[in-house]
Amino acid sequence: MSQPRMPRRPNPEELQRVLEGFSGATGLATVAVDTQGVPVTQLCAFTEFCRAMRSDPLRSKACHGCDAHGGLQALLEGTPQIYRCHAGLVDFSIPLTDGDAYVGAILCGQVRMSEREMPEPLLAQSDWHGDPHLEELYEQVPVVSRRRLEAAAATLLGLHNIVDLALHNTAAARKDPIEESDRGDESAKRTLSLVPQARSAAADERAPEVQRHNPTEVITAAIRREDLQSAFLEAVTVLDAAYAPGVLDQTREGRARLDEMILAAAKVCSPRIVIHLRQLMVQERQRGDVDRYEAQLAAERFICMVLDEYQRQHPRRHREIGDLLNDIARHPEQAISLTEAANSLHWSPGHLSKLFKSVTGCTFVSYVTGRRVERAKLMLASTQMPVQKISAELDFSQVNYFSRVFRASTGMSPSEYRRHCLSREERHTGAAVPGSNKGRLRA
């Protein structure tokens, strides 16, 4: 029997980058903690009052207890929790999970509220009143409305949903028990302690290669996270293998296999559309053999249908940055501007710019341009469409500008890239490859 897969560790460096961007954009304090409430990232934008409280060993333990309870409460309730900490300030918590395992939480806030809006205390209140220094620092803590904190919680929850997969993908699998550190430095980057994940006997019996990677599970999880880009990338991997130089039956089988994966995800996430979706897939296959680009478009259309139905069944009140990333993934050919994107979220361009970079690691313009260039690469390698038409399809104002952007990204002009892809496939097959069966390229 194979060993159960242990939950993976979120990467503290990745969390740090996201939290710094969020704190910089909102002015709110943030920190990520393990299951015991001990910080695993540096303290971002912490108030002087909280730093002073945590400098005392006894009060610091109370802070850890509040953070641990806040994370667990959010996990149990299934939604961000706004609460009053032991020192009288207001925070909110969002749990960090790996599958069914609770691995810690993100805490944010450290603000005061009016008595009318003040939430109930999470734990017994600490006796710090009477200390002149702490009282002076407490009066310097900003006062915010509950509505503002709720909006910040919704935004951070959206960021958490987006970065969750990236954090897990960059984390190493747990191999040995985590050694407890005796250091009292809270800013030290410690490893998240993990809650063991319950697994069924059937899961334990799965082959190791299935445990490592199951495309159907990846697509299903991406739809549940409302993460189109991750679902699309999994479809890219399957289609790359299907359209690798070889016999035509391999391509047909690969497309049929991807259809079944998407249908399996729909059965879990959006069961009401399964019959209709299957009918559309049959109609698509009846068109006959299609090139790699058209196959990608069909897969993306089917995945979007599953996500759209899932979102209808799980409506949200406000648009989040994840919705914007989905819009870009859904329409990579559109040259959306930062201002247009900010307006769609009812944010300022500056606010969106900071949060976007904290999530993706790049500027908004470079991200959108990158998606358009990737789509251009697929079109050049998979179709006979003229370069000028590809430029127009991808919303470039002039073909010369498109060529400059493409060369800056790939080191080749569009025509050179197309010739490179064709010659590479000819080396694999010994003959020119028809345009309807051009090869592997990540969209």
Automatic annotation (TrEMBL):
InterPro entries: Homeodomain-like_sf (IPR009057), HTH_AraC (IPR018060), PocR_dom (IPR018771). Residues 176-211, 423-443 are annotated as: Disordered. The keyword Manganese does not apply. PANTHER family: ARAC-FAMILY TRANSCRIPTIONAL REGULATOR (PTHR43280), HTH-TYPE TRANSCRIPTIONAL ACTIVATOR RHAS (PTHR43280:SF28). One of its GO terms (molecular function) is DNA-binding transcription factor activity. Residues 322-420 form the HTH araC/xylS-type domain. Keywords: DNA-binding, Transcription, Transcription regulation. Residues 176-189, 202-211 have a biased composition (Basic and acidic residues). It comes from Propionibacterium ruminifibrarum. This is RmlC-like jelly roll fold. Pfam families: HTH_18, PocR.
